[in-house]
Amino acid sequence: MYEKDGERYFVVDGHIHSWDGRPSNQANRYGEGFINCFYDYHRNLSPESEVWPLEEFWQQSEERILHDLFEVGHVDRAIFQPTYLTDFFVNGFNTTEQVGALAEKHPDRFIVNGSWDPRDGEAGLDRLEALAQRWNLRGVKLYTAEWKGDSKGWKLTDPWSYRYLERCEELGIRNIHVHKGPTIYPLNRDAFDVADVDEAASAFPDLRFVVEHVGLPRLEDFCWIATQEPNVYGGLAVALPFIHSRPRYFAQIIGELLYWIGEDRITFGSDYAIWTPRWLVERFVDFQIPDDMTEYPELTTASKKKILGLTMAGLYDIEVPDELSAAPVPAASGVAIGSEPMAPA
């Protein structure tokens, strides 16, 4: 747990990976381009002291992951978000089975999420059920721009997607994490468009849609959707590193989120190993929205505690220390502007 100025912060890193991007696992030039694109994000948005050589970025050992997250990273619990990419990587890039093995060794540290792809049809539904039973899934991570053969992506509104969301409800998988953010080579930008979250969130009010990367570069679209859909949350992975490279831009991002959806629906994620959580946590705790950006609500200590861990703890039923209380999961009705709920018309 991170402590600063007498305040304690329970940290849940809601977006981490354990990947294999080594050349030996790259199936083609797309696999090479994908990990190199990740590395460009890492190199260009990190403080100079936090930049790794490319060889260290390809894959991290169990010891390094534990060190970076829990020994020096201030993280109390972390959630693995899988990204299969089996068209680009021989053994997959970051699968539930791979990260699940590590999570089983450290059940007090990790939660593992599953994944599904509606293009897998009936066989994929059976596989989702098997994953849920094997790993006691509470969430899934969806990658709508993933390539599969001739297909260059899919939408949450596809008929088969609804079949999978219905199965998630049946299996008790309530947290639906969706990558809706910056594109990654060679994936198509438009396949990450946030628009399909709108209809799906309305159709499945008992599910929670955590929009990872808050829809960047479509922040405004995300905010308007999340304002009317109270079961939509914003994950800060990718947005947070701008706290170093472009602090006023980050102030705009967090300010817009606080204004439109409030502190109870914003969650922390480092996107490890693109970035390490230590410097992100420390800088976020120290961060204040500039005084001249008066249109935004204050980013308070209480807000930071919710964002850094208490809200995600509530979503995943993670036990927190007695002196802290998990932020309540907002009711699935009404429309929020900032931290004040507004009754629907």
Pick out its properties.
345 residues; alpha/beta; three-stranded parallel β-sheet; 12 helices; globular; disordered C terminus
Write the layout of secondary structure elements.
Layout: E1 2-4, E2 7-9, E3 12-16, H1 29-45, H2 54-58, H3 62-71, E4 77-80, H4 96-105, E5 110-112, H5 121-135, E6 139-142, H6 159-171, E7 175-179, H7 196-203, E8 208-212, H8 219-228, E9 232-235, H9 242-245, H10 247-260, E10 266-267, H11 277-286, H12 301-315, E11 335-337, E12 340-342
Parallel strand pairs: 3-4, 4-5, 6-7, 7-8, 8-9, 9-10
Antiparallel strand pairs: 1-2, 11-12
Helix pairs in contact: 5-6, 8-10
Strand content: 5-15%
Number of continuous helical runs: 12
Helices and strands, in N-to-C order?
Answer: EEEHHHEHEHEHEHEHEHHEHHEE
Measured between the Cα atoms of the first and last residue, the distance is 42 Å
Structure description:
The chain has a 5-stranded parallel sheet. It has a 3-stranded parallel sheet with strand order 3-4-5. Strands 1-2 form a two-stranded antiparallel ribbon. Mean pLDDT is 93; it is low at 331-345. The protein is built from 12 helices and 12 strands. With 345 residues, the protein is of the alpha/beta class. The chain is globular. Helix 4 links the parallel strand 4 and strand 5. Helix 8 packs parallel to helix 10 (247-260).
Short overview:
The chain has 345 residues and is of the alpha/beta class. It has 12 helices and 12 strands.
